Amino acid sequence: MSNSKRLRIAVQKSGRLSDDSIALLKAIGIKLNIRDRLLIAHSTNEPIDLLRVRDDDIPGLVMDGVVDLGFIGENELEEKSLERKAAGKPFEYETLRRLDYGGCRLSIAVPNEMEYQGIESLEGKEVATTYPYLLERYFAEKGINAKAVMLTGSVEVAPRAGVADAICDLVSTGATLEANGLVEKEEIFRSKAVLIKRAGGEMSDEKLALINRLMPRVDGVLLAKE
Ligand code: PRT
Ligand code: ZN
């Protein structure tokens, strides 16, 4: 657990958030010795260890207090919070900063040929997604009786494969939707990468002091890029 003296930070090992998260850590003066295959990377100039994992694991690692800080997309963070809340697991965290990368939106998209008059058109339908909690919360808010069908990959081919009537997936340029004959209809969540801190449990004065020393540097980097 993170009662180790060194500050533990979780970052995505390889994916869309990895390079920007590592670049930010380097920009605030943390020297890192990252070896591609390894789960852990040690800083050579600060008492910091990086845990390099799948992004899906990062919210839980922070909420269970296994790591002190984590870089994660708000989409994944909010989905996992809802899932953990439903399962009676700890779901608290503190957002330290909203970052300037990882921007995307979670949207409902329907096949080109579907007659869509608004969210009511999804009444009684099945919608494929990797984010069932966010999607079902949206349906509940709108008073729509539709079903979220969980798929962990290739969500965009679900309607064509006859697995669902529509999809709810992350969109950035919209090229993937277009390539699959889908049209974006409802934006249900806007996301960016965030830096989060564990909320439960004691944190040593040394770790808190280190975080307090690093945060102004994060602000400096974000400001310089504006
Ligand atoms: O292996 P691991 O589990 O760590 O990675 P992953 O495959 O689950 O995640 P990854 O690396 O693809 O994405 C990590 C995070 O990046 C997401 O949780 C978002 O917060 C953020 N992000 C930003 C995106 C996108 N933009 C994005 N466009 N994540 C995924 N996409 C996908 C989307 O799912 C769809 O397949 O890109 C496609 C759509 O892109 P456009 O440009 O065609 O619209
Ligand atoms: Zn993932």
TrEMBL record:
Per the record, the domain of life is: Bacteria
Tell me which residues make up the ATP phosphoribosyltransferase catalytic domain. 54-216
Enzyme category, top tier = transferase
Activity regulation, in the record's words, is: Feedback inhibited by histidine.
UniProt GO MF annotations: ATP binding; ATP phosphoribosyltransferase activity; magnesium ion binding
Asked if the record carries the keyword Glycosyltransferase, the reply is yes
- What is the stated purpose of this protein? Catalyzes the condensation of ATP and 5-phosphoribose 1-diphosphate to form N'-(5'-phosphoribosyl)-ATP (PR-ATP). Has a crucial role in the pathway because the rate of histidine biosynthesis seems to be controlled primarily by regulation of HisG enzymatic activity.
Q: Which family does it belong to?
A: Belongs to the ATP phosphoribosyltransferase family. Long subfamily.
Protein name (database record): ATP phosphoribosyltransferase
The species is: Alteromonas profundi
Region of the whole protein represented: 1 to 226 of 300
